Known about the structure:
Blueprint: H1 3-16, E1 17-25, E2 30-32, E3 54-56, H2 64-80, E4 82-84, E5 89-93, H3 94-140, H4 145-154, E6 167-173, H5 187-240, H6 247-263, H7 269-282, H8 287-292, H9 294-316, H10 320-337
Antiparallel strand pairs: 1-5, 1-6, 2-3, 4-5
Helix pairs in contact: 1-5, 1-10, 2-3, 3-4, 5-6, 5-9, 6-7, 7-9
Amino acid sequence: MENHQKNEVFQALAREGVLITTTVSYWRGHKKLRPEEVGLEPSKISDRLVCLGHKRLLPRECFEKLALIEGRVHAYVEENTFPFLGGLAHFLPNAKLDEVTHRLKELETEFHNAKELFIVCYSQWRDVAIAEWKTMIDGLGLPNAQEVVAAIEASYPAQHRLDRFFGFNTHLFQVVAPLANVQAIAEADQRGIIEARQRAAQEAEEHLRHETESFVADCITTLRAQTAQLCTDMLASIGSSETGVHQKTLNRLVRFIDQFRSLNFAGDREMEEQLAEVRQQLLSRSAEEYRSNESWKQTLINGLTGLADRARQMATEDKSALVRNFGEMGKRKFALAA
Length: 338
């Protein structure tokens, strides 16, 4: 692919979406577990061979709400974006931008409510946990039991300092190649540094352009593979169910088709047309209708099997032409907007 074509793909990607990073942090209540805390002699434990892991300063259930929200955040971002540059960030297509940012704000509100509840309950939970630790350590008959308990008590942060361990942060970035900005460099340093900055910027831009092509191709492959997997799952559900076709099984395909269209920033028209045809031919009937007519049910099974096979085959095909078309599409959109 020529350099100007690479540049078109890169610019098209920058126009079709943004990069998003979302981080959720909270106090985990973990501390390194020491041998003496479980009745072992430190001198007899080899750090090269044994790792005792960590101790929980609070029971797991104290963190369930926070952990649940964190899991929902990561799952939601994964479901509605594509990992970019090995997961350094996630690419969020423009069509999903409002929906995703709105949902993340809702999850952020849930997180802050859970944080406030955690902080309110913290003192009570800490006192109960320390009492449990004392009971356990007393049962071990340790000669330095008081010192071990004191060390554990010291591991708990003060309640008024807990807030700094919590955070919910979402950042949006534009996909931009590095620039060799030499204006900020002092004249005395410019001779050697300008050339080095320019070389570094050119190499970084070339690398990013190459990664961008691979990224667009991988996104196309991912959506096609997901299509095949969904059909396979639906066929398995139909085959294993005593009643046959469930409406929720058909609804999964409806939701997936809508999701595909909003994530299809690369313009995979062939796969989109395949799904549109399936929607028209197979989703115009209800699950009850499929259950009442064996011929229609077999048509559904054949249609899903054919879509799965075709999507699986398309996932393995070369994506170079689609990537080039994506770059051209971006150029046309830019010309229309100008």
